[in-house]
């Protein structure tokens, strides 16, 4: 066979293989036996080896190929991959619909519903009809290039199929979800058990980890699948219903059980129906996505913060399950506080396997009367945080004794103490290793340093490269090379990232220090009052207590922090290493908001709650987390909840969003 004949045969083989791949992995139809298809793939591979220059990126042989990667490159998304607002009840969903009608000036428009798969969102970019890049969501603006791994997923076409009567635009972006089919996940765990290896507990995390394998051959063994839920290209589509049809014609499998409805009641019926079907769907879902079906209207509704107005995730109710308490462990945080965590028998709740549940503190243990060996009811709040709802006392073992608070630190062995007026138990060793690690991690978040996590920080501390958070700012690339996960380029990038964060506001710097009882709002209040770091450090206890919203407990914490010599040295180190602490911006003078305390509740139409709070701070006001007699105003949006009721009960004035904006201006 000469080259021309080989080329013709290769084209034919690719078309036939692609057709049967599509039938099996997208349409769930078997149109050729596995052995016959393997035979065709082998013939194609043999011809391509004979004529390597005939290998193209859309060839089935390229789904797994190439050397393992050293790292993932970054990809800037052409448009941000936004998040979704969550609602958890029928009332919250109906409130969302009412906001849409109010903002959009129209009622009773069709809504498109699709199951919310528990997977990993990815973006696929096709250029000239061929898969060019595939990237993860990342931070919404920048993701990781996982093209080689994505190619191993059979339900993702390497080349787009031509829709009936349409031309394929030069650039097509398809967004969707990588997920673990139930059967594939169970088969993977069965195989791991046979090999005597640990099994995976969480399908979503396993899917995400599979996609981020540096060796595509590992990803190929996982049996992952893909469903599409968005096209960013002009095919003349006007609705999501039309997009679903186009996605199918392009060769994708859109999320099943998806449909448009003309009424809220029909959407609610579909949501309830999905819950009854969820165990038989073949994939894990934790809710239903509801979107305005009309694309133009969806775009016109705009974005609030990082979430589109015309889209919402209606989560399924939290699931409950029973399990047994095997152990209660105590962890140590950055302030030295010991937190109890219940270790439970692995229990499946809401699409994940739960093995730990938070107990908060010793008072919570006593309130629940939790004991080792107890059978308890676990639930997940918003399908995220596992908690203990109740102890089943009739199932308690006869030898189950009360949980005793620890008398020494579980990390360093130092004595512990329970301070007057506080619930938490603290390690008395200020140099406890875990406290050091958590303190550095806390500081990196306040300085907004990306790319450095607990493992890297632990390695830096263990190797003596750093001893305090301030030491991060004198790191050199050579200090990092040789640590796990760092080569020359990645080390250089992290150092550059750290150096770019040397300028910081006073409030964020105070937050970075990790003072007990000083959270984000308290740090802002202190910074607004004193304006400079030296003023804060020199402030007396009485001066600190004079700050609006700062009581004796917080004032003592701040004063005690700056009275300690090693904390003074830490601040001095920051300054020596080039940290520029910006003078706190003076709040706008003489506004109707200056000096007033506000609580914001409910959903606002023109701004997010965080934006509203920032506007209040800039105008000289203070934000409170709860309503009290000291609250001056409560800003009330849609679906306000208990804070609105509390304001009415106490007679605290409330402001509509319109009245609030007028006060700001």
TrEMBL record:
Keywords recorded for this protein, A-Z: DNA damage, DNA repair, DNA replication, Ligase, Magnesium, Manganese, Metal-binding, NAD, Zinc
A single MF term (Gene Ontology): metal ion binding
Cofactor(s) essential for the protein: Mg(2+); Mn(2+)
SUPFAM superfamilies named in the record: BRCT domain, DNA ligase/mRNA capping enzyme, catalytic domain, Nucleic acid-binding proteins, RuvA domain 2-like
Reaction(s) this enzyme catalyzes, per UniProt: NAD(+) + (deoxyribonucleotide)n-3'-hydroxyl + 5'-phospho-(deoxyribonucleotide)m = (deoxyribonucleotide)n+m + AMP + beta-nicotinamide D-nucleotide
GO BP: DNA repair; DNA replication
Residues where Zn(2+) binds: 409, 412, 427, 432
Residue runs in coiled coils: none
Catalytic residue list: 116 (n6-amp-lysine intermediate)
Annotated ranges, domain BRCT: 588-665
GO cellular component terms, semicolon-separated: cytosol
EC number: 6.5.1.2
Designated name of the protein: DNA ligase
Gene name of the record: ligA
């Amino acid at each position: 066979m000469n080259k021309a004949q080989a080329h013709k045969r290769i084209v034919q083989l690719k078309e036939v293989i692609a057709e049967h791949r599509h039938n099996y992995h997208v349409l769930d139809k078997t149109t050729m036996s596995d052995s016959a298809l393997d035979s065709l793939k082998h013939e194609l591979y043999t011809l391509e080896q004979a004529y390597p220059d005939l290998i193209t990126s859309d060839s089935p042989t390229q789904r797994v190929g190439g050397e393992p990667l050293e790292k993932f490159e970054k990809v800037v998304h052409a448009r941000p991959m936004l998040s979704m607002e969550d609602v958890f009840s029928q009332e919250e969903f109906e409130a969302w619909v009412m906001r849409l009608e109010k903002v959009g000036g129209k009622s009773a428009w069709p809504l498109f519903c699709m199951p919310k798969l528990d997977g990993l969102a990815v973006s696929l970019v096709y250029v000239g009809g061929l898969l060019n890049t595939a990237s993860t969501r990342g931070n919404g603006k920048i993701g990781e290039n996982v093209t080689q791994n994505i190619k191993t997923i059979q339900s993702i076409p390497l080349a787009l199929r031509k829709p009936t009567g349409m031309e394929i635009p030069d650039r097509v972006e398809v967004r969707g979800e990588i997920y673990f089919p139930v059967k594939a996940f169970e088969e993977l765990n069965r195989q791991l058990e046979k090999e005597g290896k640990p099994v995976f507990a969480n399908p979503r995390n396993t899917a995400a980890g599979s996609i981020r394998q540096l060796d595509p051959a590992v990803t190929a063994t996982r049996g992952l699948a893909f469903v599409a839920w968005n096209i960013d290209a002009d095919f003349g589509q006007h609705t999501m219903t039309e997009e679903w049809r186009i996605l199918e014609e392009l060769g994708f499998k859109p999320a099943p059980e998806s449909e448009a409805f003309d009424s809220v009641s029909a959407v609610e019926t579909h949501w309830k129906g999905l819950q009854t079907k969820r165990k038989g769907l073949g994939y894990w879902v934790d809710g239903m996505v509801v979107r305005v079906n009309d694309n133009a209207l969806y775009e016109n509704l705009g974005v609030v913060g990082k979430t589109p107005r015309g889209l919402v995730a209606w989560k399924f109710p939290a699931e409950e399950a029973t399990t047994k308490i095997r152990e209660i462990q105590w962890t140590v945080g950055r302030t030295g506080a010991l937190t109890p965590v219940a270790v439970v028998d692995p229990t499946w709740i809401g699409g994940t396997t739960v093995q730990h549940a938070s107990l908060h503190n010793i008072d919570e243990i006593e309130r629940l009367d939790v004991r080792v060996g107890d059978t308890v009811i676990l639930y997940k709040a918003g399908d995220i945080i596992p908690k203990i709802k109740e102890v089943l006392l009739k199932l308690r073992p006869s030898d189950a004794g009360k949980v005793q608070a620890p008398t020494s630190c579980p990390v360093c062995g130092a004595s512990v103490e329970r301070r007057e007026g506080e619930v938490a138990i603290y390690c008395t060793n200020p140099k406890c290793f875990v406290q050091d690690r958590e303190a550095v991690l806390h500081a990196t978040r306040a300085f907004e340093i990306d790319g450095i996590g607990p493992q890297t920080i632990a390695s830096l501390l263990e190797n003596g490269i750093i001893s305090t958070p301030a030491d991060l700012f004198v790191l050199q690339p050579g200090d990092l090379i040789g640590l796990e996960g760092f080569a020359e380029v990645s080390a250089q990038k992290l150092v550059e990232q750290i150096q770019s964060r040397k300028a910081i506001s006073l409030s964020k710097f105070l937050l970075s220090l990790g003072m007990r009882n000083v959270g984000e709002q308290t740090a802002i209040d202190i910074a607004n009052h004193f304006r400079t770091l030296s003023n804060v450090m020199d402030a007396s206890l009485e001066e600190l207590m004079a700050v609006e919203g700062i009581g004796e407990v917080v004032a003592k914490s701040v004063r005690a922090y700056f009275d300690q010599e090693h904390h003074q040295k830490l601040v001095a180190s920051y300054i020596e290493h080039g940290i520029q602490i910006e003078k706190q911006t003076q709040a706008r003078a003489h506004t109707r908001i200056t000096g007033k305390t506000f609580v914001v509740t409910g959903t606002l139409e023109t701004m997010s709650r965080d934006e509203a709070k920032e506007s209040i701070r800039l105008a000289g006001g203070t934000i409170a987390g709860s309503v009290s007699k000291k609250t001056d105003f409560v800003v009330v949006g849609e679906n306000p909840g208990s804070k609105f009721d509390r304001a009415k009960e106490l007679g605290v004035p409330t402001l509509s969003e319109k009245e609030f904006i007028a006060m700001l201006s």
